């Protein structure tokens, strides 16, 4: 190995040869993926193609059967790894049920930074208020989640995730459960995160968002990345018949 290679910063995420089966059925069949710092990678594909399972292996909610996943060079699939410590480095937002219903907005968003990362309450709340102000929800910080719209809840969930300063943010169909009118406000916040320098792996069915906001698009089909590329090339001239078929069904 040359000196250059040893001193190069590793990508934020490196997935190598990941395989995962459930009850003998292969769901991920050799996934390779790199995400560099500040990149937004969007994973698309039909329901059941393995998108959520991929994100779960990265967050160690599922163990890989084979292959390795590195977070900034650390092999997080090593069985000796401390799962909580890995998870504290990764922010995750799912389709729904992200907030604690019995906690106010401000407590929801500051809990992890205070308890997991040891940030003082004043400091955590000051930063939370800046973000809530930015998304127009400062007036709601004492409210409970059930007083917020789905779109507001998801924006609060995203703010909660980024307040822990994750090295990687995983967003799994965060707008799929929302009224179409509320999708835009959530995706606008993801754009803000990108501008702020976050490193993001997300799944979505919002192709116009993927096309305009992604740095790289990967198409999963039956547990493999069948096609990938920069958004303009990917959407402008998809080559695999399965990709064309998938994209045409969305219109
Ligand atoms: P996607 O997110 O692309 O819709 P998933 O990763 O959720 O796909 O699921 C891929 C396949 O794996 C599906 O057939 C699903 O039923 C199956 N699967 C996912 N999780 C489990 C599990 N915990 N046990 C058994 N099968 C699962
Ligand atoms: Mg899914």
Automatic annotation (TrEMBL):
Domain ABC transporter: residue ranges: 13-247
Predominant cellular place of this UniProt entry's protein: membrane
GO CC entries: plasma membrane
GO molecular function, one term: ATP hydrolysis activity
Subcellular localization(s) per the UniProt record: Cell membrane
Keyword terms, alphabetized: Amino-acid transport, ATP-binding, Cell membrane, Membrane, Nucleotide-binding, Transport
Keyword ATP-binding: yes
InterPro entries named in the record: AAA+_ATPase, ABC_ATPase_HisP-typ, ABC_transporter-like_ATP-bd, ABC_transporter-like_CS, MetN_ABC_transporter-like, P-loop_NTPase
Pfam families tied to this protein: ABC_tran (PF00005)
UniProt membrane topology term: Peripheral membrane protein
Source taxon at top rank: Bacteria
Signal peptide range: none
Keyword set includes Nucleotide-binding: yes
Family classification: Belongs to the ABC transporter superfamily.
Protein name: Amino acid ABC transporter ATP-binding protein
Organism: Galbitalea soli
Lineage: Bacteria, Bacillati, Actinomycetota, Actinomycetes, Micrococcales
């Amino acid at each position: 190995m040359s000196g250059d290679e040893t001193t190069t910063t590793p990508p934020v995420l490196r997935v190598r040869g990941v395989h995962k089966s459930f009850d003998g059925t292969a769901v991920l069949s050799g996934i390779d993926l790199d995400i560099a710092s500040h990149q937004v990678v969007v994973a698309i594909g039909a329901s059941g193609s393995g998108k959520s399972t991929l994100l779960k292996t990265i967050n160690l909610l599922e163990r890989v059967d084979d292959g390795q996943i590195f977070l900034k060079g650390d092999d997080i699939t090593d069985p000796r790894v401390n799962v909580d410590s890995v998870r504290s480095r990764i922010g995750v937002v799912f389709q729904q049920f992200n907030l604690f219903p019995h906690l106010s907005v401000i407590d929801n968003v500051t809990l992890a930074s205070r308890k997991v990362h040891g940030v003082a309450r004043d400091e955590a709340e000051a930063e939370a208020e800046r973000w809530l102000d930015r998304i127009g929800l400062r007036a709601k910080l004492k409210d409970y989640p059930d007083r917020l719209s789905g779109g507001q809840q998801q924006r609060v969930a995203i703010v909660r995730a980024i307040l822990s300063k994750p090295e990687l943010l995983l967003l799994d169909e965060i707008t799929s459960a929302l009224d179409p009118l509320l999708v835009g406000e959530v995706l606008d916040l993801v754009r803000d995160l990108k501008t702020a320098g976050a490193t993001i792996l997300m799944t979505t069915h919002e192709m116009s968002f993927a096309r305009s906001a992604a740095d790289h698009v990967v198409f999963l089909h039956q547990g493999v990345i069948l096609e990938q590329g920069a958004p303009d090339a990917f959407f402008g001239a998809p080559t695999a018949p399965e990709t064309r078929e998938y994209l045409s069904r969305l219109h």
